[in-house]
Amino acid sequence: MIKIQKLHKEYNNKIVLQNVSFKAKKGEITGLIGPNGSGKSTLIRILLGLENSQMGMALIDGKKYSQLGDNPFGIVGSFLDSCQPYPTRTGFQHLRWIGLACGVDRNRCKECLELVGLSEAKNKK
Question: Looking at the 3D structure of the chain, how many domains does it have?
C-alpha cells in the first residue's frame, strides 16, 4: 500500500503540494491527474526518495523508499517523465530490459502488460 499523509512541498516560496493525503491499496489502480506544474511528478519523486518534502510522509508498505531493503525494485517500479527511453525499442523490449535488471522473467512482463491493458500495443515504439 502507498500512503501519502499531509505532504507539503515548496520551491522558491511557491507551494507545489499542500497537505496532500491519500492511500493507494494493493490491487487497486490509482492515477495522479492534473495540469502541468500541479505537483504530480514531485509527489512521485518524494515517494521514491529522490526529493524531500518540507512536511508529511510518503510510505510504501509502511516504510520510506530508503527503508525497503537491498532490492527496492522488487517492490516498486517507476518510469518518470525525465527518463528518455530508447527510441528504437518497443514498449515490451523496454519493459523486458528493465525486468532483466530486476530479475523479472519474460512471462511476468507479458502479464504486466495484460494487467494494464497494453498487450495490443506491446510492439509499438
Answer: 2
Packing angle of the helix pair 91-102, 106-115 (nearest 10 deg): 130
39: left (phi over 0), alpha (psi -120 to 50) or beta: left
- Strand runs (DSSP E) across the chain, as ranges? 2-11, 14-24, 55-60
Domain carrying residue 100: 84-121
How far the first Cα of the chain sits from its last, in Å, is 31
Is 78 within a domain? no
Rounded Cα distance, 70 and 120, in Å:
34
- 28, HSE (Cβ side, Cα atoms, 13 Å): 9
> 19 φ, ψ to 5°?
55, 45
Write out residues in the chain with pLDDT < 70, as ranges. 79-85
Summarised one tens digit per residue, pLDDT across range 70-105 is: 777 777 777 666 556 677 888 888 888 888 877 888
Cell numbers describing residue 120: 495490443
Cell numbers for 33, please give them: 491527474
Rounded to two decimals, the pTM is 0.65
